[in-house]
Design goal:
Elements lengths: L1 E3 L2 E3 L1 H18 L17 H17 L2 E7 L4 E4 L16 E8 L8 E7 L2 E7 L3 H15 L14 H27 L4 H25 L3 E3 L7 H29 L2
C-alpha cells in the first residue's frame, strides 16, 4: 500500500495503470488450454474436468475489473470494463469526486490491486504472490501515475492550511518591510503615511494567499496536456506579484520626483 496526498492526472493514466495490473494478475492464471465450460465432448475423468474448470474459473476471476466513479451530486456509476471510462465526456471531469478501480476484487487478497483517487489524494493497494512481484508491479504503476509537475506549495508536504498561514505571515512581513524601506529611501512622506501605505500593500498579498488556500486541491482529473490547478495559480501569482512590485517602484519614483 502507498499513498500520495495530492494527485492530478488523466483518466487515461488510471486506465493504463489498472490495465497493467490486470495483465500482471492474468499472467498468474492462464486459461487451461483448449478448455471452456461450453466445451463439448470433454475427454477425461470427472476429476480432470473439475481441475480444468477450477483453473478456468480462476482465470476468469483474475481478469475481473470493477470501476466505480462518484460525482458531486451523489450520482455514481459502476463499470465492468476499463474501456467504459472513455465514455466519460471531458465536460464531466470537474464533477467527479472519486474513481476506484479493483482488479481481481481488489488489492486486499493476492493477487489483486486497487487504485483509488479522491479528495484525499491517491491510494494504491497491491497484493501479490511474493514481494518481488509486488515491488515490480508497484514500480511500473508509480511510473504511470506519478505527476510530472508540482501540485502544491513546497512547504510541510503541501498541507494547504499550514502553507497558507506560513505564506501569509512571511509575505506580509516581507512586503511591509520592503515597501516601508523603499518609501523611506525614495519618498518624503512622513512615517505614519509610509506605514499606512505599506500596510495597504500587504492586502493584495493576503488576497493571493486566500485564493491559493481555497483553490488548493488534492485530486484533479485533467484533460490530456492540461496543467494542474497549482501550476495555473502559480502563473497568476507571478503576474500579480510582478504588477505589485512595479506599482510600488512606480509610486516611490513618483513620490521622489514630485515637488
Amino acid at each position: 500500500r502507498w499513498e500520495w496526498s495530492h494527485w492530478a492526472g488523466t483518466l487515461a493514466q488510471l486506465q493504463r495503470a489498472a490495465r497493467y495490473c490486470s495483465n500482471k494478475v492474468a499472467e498468474l492464471y492462464p486459461y487451461p488450454e483448449g478448455f471452456t465450460p461450453e466445451t463439448e465432448g470433454f475427454e477425461g475423468t470427472s476429476d480432470e474436468y473439475s481441475e480444468k474448470y477450477s483453473a478456468w474459473s480462476d482465470a476468469e476471476r483474475a481478469r475481473k475489473v470493477t470501476v466505480k466513479v462518484s460525482e458531486r451530486d451523489g450520482y455514481s456509476r459502476e463499470f465492468g470494463n476499463l474501456d467504459e471510462l472513455d465514455e466519460i465526456s471531458d465536460g464531466n471531469l470537474n464533477s467527479i469526486t472519486a474513481v476506484s478501480i479493483d482488479v481481481n476484487y481488489g488489492g486486499y487478497t493476492p493477487p489483486g490491486a486497487t487504485i483509488r483517487v479522491s479528495d484525499s489524494g491517491l491510494v494504491a493497494l497491491l497484493a501479490g504472490p511474493d514481494r518481488a512481484w509486488t515491488a515490480g508491479v508497484r514500480h511500473e504503476v508509480e511510473k504511470i501515475l506519478k505527476p510530472t509537475k508540482r501540485l502544491h506549495l513546497p512547504l510541510f508536504g503541501g498541507d494547504p492550511f499550514i502553507s497558507a498561514w506560513i505564506g501569509a505571515a512571511l509575505g506580509i512581513e516581507l512586503v511591509f518591510l520592503a515597501s516601508f524601506g523603499l518609501f523611506s529611501t525614495l519618498s518624503s512622506w512622513d512615517k505614519s503615511t509610509r506605514v499606512i501605505v505599506s500596510v495597504g500593500l500587504t492586502v493584495p498579498w493576503c488576497g493571493l494567499v486566500a485564493v491559493a488556500y481555497f483553490s488548493t486541491t488534492q485530486f484533479e482529473l485533467l484533460l490530456p496536456g492540461a496543467d494542474p490547478k497549482y501550476q495555473r495559480w502559480r502563473r497568476g501569482v507571478r503576474a500579480a506579484v510582478g504588477t505589485i512590485v512595479l506599482s510600488v517602484i512606480g509610486a516611490a519614483i513618483w513620490a521622489a520626483v514630485s515637488p
